[in-house]
Amino acid sequence: AKVTLSVIKADIGGFVGHSAVHPEVKEKARACLEKHPLLIDYYVAHVGDDLVLIMTHEHGRNKGEIHKLAWDTFVACTEVAKKLKLYGAGQDLLADAFSGNVKGLGPGVAEMEVEERESEPVVVLMADKTEPGAWNLPLYKIFADPFNTIGLIIDPKMHCGFAFEVRDLIEDKKIIFNAPEDLYDMLVFIGAPGRYAIKRVFHRGTGEIAAVSSTQRLNLMAGRYVGKDDPVCIVRCQNGYPSVGEVLEPFAFPHLVSGWMRGSHSGPLMPVSMDDARPTRFDGPPRVVALGFQLADGKLIGPNDFFSDPAFDNARRLALEIADYLRRLGPFEPHRLHLDEMEYTTMPQVMEKLRDRFIDLRLAKKARAAAGGEA
Ligand code: F6R
Ligand code: MG
Ligand code: MG
Questions:
Q1: pLDDT tens digits, 342-364
Q2: Residue 160, burial from CB neighbour count under 10 angstroms (0-12, 13-18, 19+)
């Protein structure tokens, strides 16, 4: 039978501020999922202030009952968050009632249905204080860059390359790019991760799913700012897919992502263990956690908390140096995001306040010309 891996996450209250998930909240989530008849197995994780439900079952993707279970779990956890008066309790539960599918409601979702192989290693990537497009650069490196993934060159099962489904998050469109032949075209788009995000990657030989990310744009959905849509991603590994080491390798380079303080800054994505995923400095820097599991008839054998490996110490050190450097820019771009990416900007109010003090130079010029003066 096919197994579906559903990773559904939400920020339902931070401890303290927007830093972490309180242990009682995770406890509650475990109580909701324990021995649940719909599930084969589950693991409750967190990254920063995001609660991440990792679930396996046989019901396929976008299944109402599974999404409802996740929703009900978040609602139950919100009760705990409210009792403890955690910060922003229930912030990602945008709708008051569940309406069949958590997509478009607030929580982030990544799901894949697989025919479990003889051995099925998967990596669940989870990030805090950033956006879904943060996966673009690592997914590109993992599935299209032979300088990262030598398997693309020397594994006969990977040499055919991978296909990338890219979403336009603003206009809600999608397009498939085939690597390697469409790479230059694809990079025009995925190099703009605030708008274009890689949703899925497929093996071109088998057509099988290789990776899937969450691409909800929470801030746009709510119509007002309610927090960054911190993303998750699932990647299959080994034997025709990138090896675990090839999946983790891009994170040895802490690339710049949008998010961090007030969702309005550029900063390095720092790979950390789950224990170290409690962003503090200027509410950051943004974090990524990688949990490895072996699926065994749908059972989640794991996790292996990969970034606890000291091999990522240099990436962390570099991330901190980049953080030091960027912080010295204070409110200046490019540390602060470009105006149209800023999520809670005072720009409209300040503009309104100063409207009368702005002098339109084009009008002044025209007036001078009309008066016969120099243009
Ligand atoms: C960014 C984030 C935090 C908050 C900041 C202000 O994604 O969660 O940096 O934006 O702590 O939070 P509020 O507006 O809730 O006081
Ligand atoms: Mg939060
Ligand atoms: Mg968060």
A1: 655 677 788 889 999 999 999 98
A2: middle
- Determine the atom of ligand 1 nearest the C-alpha atom of 264: 1
Rounded-to-integer distance, Cα 276 and Cα 271, Å: 9
Q: Which residues surround ligand 2, an ion (CB under 5 A)?
A: 11, 14, 18, 49, 88
DSSP 8-state secondary structure symbol assigned to residue 338:
P
Rg for the chain, CA atoms, rounded: 22
Which residue owns the Cα nearest ligand 1 atom 14?
262
Looking from the CA of 31 toward its CB, the CA atoms found within 13 Å total 11
Q: Which two tokens stand for residue 247?
A: 């999946």
Return d(Cα 278, Cα 275) in angstroms, integer. 7
Please name every residue paired with 48 in a beta bridge, in sequence order, or none if there are none. Answer: none
Is the peptide bond prior to 334 cis by the omega test (within 30 degrees of 0)? yes
State the ipTM, two decimals: 0.94
Name residue 293's beta-bridge partners.
122
**What is the set of active-site residues?**
11, 225, 228
Query: For atom 3 of ligand 1, which residue has the closest CA?
Result: 262
What is the CA 355 to chain-centroid distance, rounded? 38
